[in-house]
Specification:
four-stranded mixed sheet; globular; 7 helices; 203 residues; 51% helix; 7% strand; homodimer; alpha+beta
Chain lengths: 203, 203
């Protein structure tokens, strides 16, 4: 079993952190996203959606989509639980994961993809107005997360979860997207300073 | 327990179809999306993300995000399974659900939200170039799904699943978005004609 990925992209990092939290060592194989190798015939045969990461099993089967890969490992190795415990806990964790993924990670990615000069040959067409529009959406989402973190230790509740992983990766991805976390979001800062210090954050 | 939703929006429809397939009768309460009622103080207190559907429990707890709501009911009533069976089956179904959600439903929604005149006061700013760019992405995704359906009966494999529900809702949402399925996608047409005839499709 191996994971085909690129270290520079945010989605593979979500899986790397998840596996580090689980203590599962997996072989990673690098693809260079920026040279367009995801559009090669060889990689397209691996994943017609041309996205990393791809979990490749020894018998040739493939599993794509970062959260689907995480769920597979969550079932294989339930401890520590990173996707919630019990029907309501799992549903709530999925709710928070999705809010962070669509509301923050996706929007940061849109700012990066539609405004960064290096993405001009990969994101076609690049639409600067769409990139700009997402800047305000990112800030609005950060404020909602800050409000949430006024009442809970982690995003999905009292335990570290995949929602925290998605948020950590999204906030670190704000740097190449030339975005900054507003200084008045003190709950978010308290949370970030803690999760960014976990050993898994460097995975 | 009740679900606050709007019948005209695609995400609540995913949950209605899911519950119809499970045979679970739930009370639905209508909000009128088009009049901006999701931005009211009352609804924002229910869901700060201002989105439907919201599952409201009798004790006041809320669960948002359509797929999280579906997962809650999948655990409560596992039969018929709509989110896969076994660790690999559940992960593969989630992979397909995500591909269809991001690749198709989200993109159709972008065409609708950024090009339809009725959305001008709800999607701010409306960016026509972004709406237009998503038209080609929708067609590319439909072609990938058609290729997939050349080899499987349903999208995630041989059993009807949440991935089919997301795809059915997305394709029906193409009509108000003024999009058409290309006539040469015969596998997609075979699949659509079957799933659109399921009793749950009218939920």
């Amino acid at each position: 079993m191996r994971i085909v990925e690129t270290r520079r992209a945010p989605n593979p990092r979500r899986v790397r952190i998840f596996l580090a939290e689980k203590g599962l060592p997996i072989l990673f194989e690098e693809q260079d996203l920026m040279t367009g190798s995801l559009k090669s015939a060889e990689f397209t045969a691996l994943n017609p959606w041309q996205q990393v990461p791809v979990l490749v099993f020894d018998d040739g089967r493939r599993l794509c989509e970062s959260v689907a890969i995480c769920r597979y490992f969550e079932e294989l190795q339930p401890n520590p639980p990173l996707m919630g415990v019990g029907p309501m806990g799992r549903a709530e964790t999925e709710m928070w994961q999705r809010r962070i993924e669509f509301g923050l990670l996706f929007r940061v990615a849109q700012v990066f993809r539609h405004l960064h000069p290096k993405m001009a040959h990969l994101e076609m067409p690049q639409i600067a107005a769409w990139g700009e529009a997402n800047k305000a959406k990112v800030e609005a989402e950060l404020r909602l997360i800050d409000e949430r973190l006024a009442g809970t230790h982690y995003i999905a509740g009292e335990n570290f979860s995949i929602a925290d992983i998605t948020a950590l990766v999204a906030i670190d991805f704000m740097k190449p997207a030339c975005l900054e976390v507003p200084a008045d979001l003190v709950n978010l800062k308290r949370w970030f300073d803690e999760v960014a210090r976990r050993p898994s954050a460097s995975a």
